[in-house]
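Appendix B. One record, verbatim.
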Amino acid sequence: MELTSHRVHLFFSFPEQISDRKLLRRYESLLSEAESAQMARFYYAGHRHQYLVTRALIRSSLSTFFPVDPVTWKFTASAYGKPDIEHPEVEVPVRFNISHTRGLIVCAIVRGYDIGVDTEDTERSTRTDMDSLASYFSPQEIDEIRNLPAARQKQRFFDYWTLKESYIKARGLGLAIPLDKFTFLFRDDRLDGFQVHADLDDDAGSWKFWRVAVNRRYKVALALNAAGVDIDLSACKTIPMATNETFPLTVL
């Protein structure tokens, strides 16, 4: 598989479907000492399992494009936690981002552009989140949600939340970017615009966004800083180091 600057590759893994002990031991053998220590710090077995599959997914997905053994990948992180790779045999500007929620892990990989991905489980409760909208969203976004019928507000909340997370992850600054300083605009349930406050020192026109439907349960959003470039998406459902199955994406 070739990594180009005109295609984003999305790898989806469902950790609850991965239970083979031999395969899980292979995943454990890939972990660095720091990763093994991090996994051990999780109290719940389900969280340790998700972390393990996440690390295997990143490593195996990157090795899809390069003749690099998954165990040899080394990673760094910015002061705000944005991941990057360091590997002497990889000279192309690889960018990747990872997101996970209960039951789903997504890894996005592209060549040359800042990228961010976020996924959320829409079956989780949003009561607390909805009660504190003012901390998360711009005034326009808050008004748009509150003007929707009650039955649609939860889904729009997750539309905004995943889009916002994908943008701040692509910028690499995390929550250092105030979430009320940029706005996504919807029209007839379609994403229709993106605005940034002057304080953010960014050009809204340089960004591309996608909302991707995996199934009814999950929302996925992708952000890419690639102005003027035609980009397509490819998707693969994967059990790391075992199976890969391409499938057509539904882009909303």
